[in-house]
Design goal:
Layout lengths: L6 H12 L4 H15 L11 E5 L6 E5 L22 H6 L13
Antiparallel strand pairs: 1-2
Helix pairs in contact: 1-2
Length: 105
Amino acid sequence: MVVTSEPIATRIGVDVLRDGGNAVDAAVTLGFVLAVVRPRAGNIGGGGFMLIKRRDGGQVEVIDYRETAPASADRDMFLDADGNADPQKSRFSHLSAGVPGTVAG
């Protein structure tokens, strides 16, 4: 079963399953399709988590593909000149952007 808010995405997800793909294949495909046809519902500029339980009853696997801090991030990057936390920097500046994790996930 495949359900999305966009009929074209749903059809593509069903095609993935019919062509022998599994639920994870369909979910990943839908993530990319929805990034194009309904970008406000999700896009490749974000991140997330996925729990996977294989059909054979194996352990649940966790994939963490959340955004990460840029390589140049440091512990003081959200402090003002006096060493106090500056909420504006952590919410509304270029410093608040993380490195997207969706594609890596």
